[in-house]
Amino acid sequence: MKKLIFLFSLFVWAGAPVGAQPMQQVVGEVRASAARMSGKTLQKRFLLKPGDPFTPALFDKAQDDLHDLRVFKKLEFSTQEKNGKTDIFINAQDGYYIFPLAFASGGKKNAAALSLAAGNLFKQGESTFVFAGGSDDGFTAMAGLSLGDDFISLGFTKLNFDQRFYQNGWSNTFGVFSTTDDEDEYHSSLLGALHTRKEQLALTYMHRFSRTLRAFVRPEYVRYTYSPRALDNGSHNQITLGLRLSDDVRKGVNMGALSGYGLTDKKKSLQNLPRPRTGYAANVFYTAGGSWTGSDYEISKLGLEAAGLLEFKNRHMLVAEIRAQDAFKAPFSDRVLSSELLSGLGRYDRQIRGSRGAGAAVSFIYYLLRNETGLLSLAPFYELAYVYAGSRYRPHSGAGAALTYKLWRFPFPFGINYTRNLQDGSDTVGFVFGGKF
After folding, report:
1. Per-residue pLDDT reduced to its tens digit, 393-433
2. Structural domain includes residue 386
3. Are 291 and 318 in the same domain?
């Protein structure tokens, strides 16, 4: 009998999995309450659902997603483990905001703009905006709505400006709020100029399939007119399709800050991280046009973008970016611009236009000050792009730094930017207002 008991015990021991791990926790109930939103709406906007795997990392990301709605004055989370499941409780105090903003500038190029942003007016955690601005070179207007997994915007731009061409493939940058400093600084290398008129109407729709994956479509009406010499006058109507995969740890704009909303993760943001963390973003898009879109020209362009971010324990960040575009078929106006291949950190008054190109950039965001009032950062950067123009690749590179301050109770960071164009040795100092921080 003892022998049989011994054999049975040996059988049970041998059949047990070596190093067996406890059963993975899953999400049980998710209960939520808020002042304006319904509990069901808040549950829908929360990343974790009943039956999903539960880990501290996923729970932290789900909390960040709710914080990023920026419509809460209070947002509290608690959990309770029961029978291998983790119940989650969310207690929120949400409100709504309307934030108007206007600015004007003078000098060589007069400009003014007005924007109006609103959040949670319809108790869905949505955000809406309207923007309109103009200058001596034209005007632009845009309106957008972000609700749940969907974003839609409609924008119209009309430009009326001189496009100047210089030696070595350079031409001036253009836009409603672009600089015109090139006209005087590079007059000795000017080859010629064309008066340009551009009309553009663009509708963008984006859908989020998961926390990290999005897709968008953008049909555009575009028309160019050049004088006195015609280049590619006529219709350039086109459609762009794209995919975006991202897990970006940087904070976006908080339009409700002035009213005290969206600061629920302020204390957390001021604390050091337990360990470094990473973020990433990758985009791919394809633009096409032809007679089927009402275009007078065949258009075919492919673009790729990728960025990686390392956030250290003390919140400093190292960011690396790469971009590439190839205009397989494109008239002059739709070719690749070197400014589209750079990071956007530098300020330039000239750019290079060509059939294809690639660029890379690296920057380091160092926080000089982090306190209850705001964040002061210094961000040195270097960026380089090569564009194929005039039978060879031409470089466009720059280096500099941005010194910016972000008040917790104001939506945008502001400061100054210094950029040195490493090709022609020119220096640009500009005012920074807005962008990721």
Report:
1. 999 999 999 999 999 998 888 999 999 999 988 898 888 87
2. no
3. yes
**C-alpha radius of gyration, the chain, whole number:** 26
Answer yes or no: pTM beyond 0.70: yes
Close Cβ partners of 122 (under 8 Å, ≥ 6 residues apart): none
Domain span holding position 344 = 98-363
Answer yes or no: are the C-beta atoms of 128 and 144 closer than 8 Å: yes
Residue type, 22: P
- Give 273-317 pLDDT, tens digit per residue: 999 999 999 999 999 999 999 999 999 999 999 999 999 999 999
Query: How far apart are alpha carbons 182 and 292 in whole angstroms?
Result: 38
Instruction: Give which of 257, 313, 12, 223 is closest to 117, Cα–Cα.
Output: 257
Helix (H) / strand (E) containing 387: strand 374-389
Instruction: Establish how many alpha carbons lie within 13 A of residue 364's alpha carbon, considering only the half-sphere containing its beta carbon.
Output: 4
Residue 391: inside a domain, yes or no? no
Do 261 and 71 contact (CB within 8 A), yes or no? yes
β-strands 85-94, 26-33: how paired?
Answer: parallel
Torsion of CA 329, 333, 339, 342, to 10 degrees: -20
Which CATH number characterizes residue 157's domain? Answer: 2.40.160
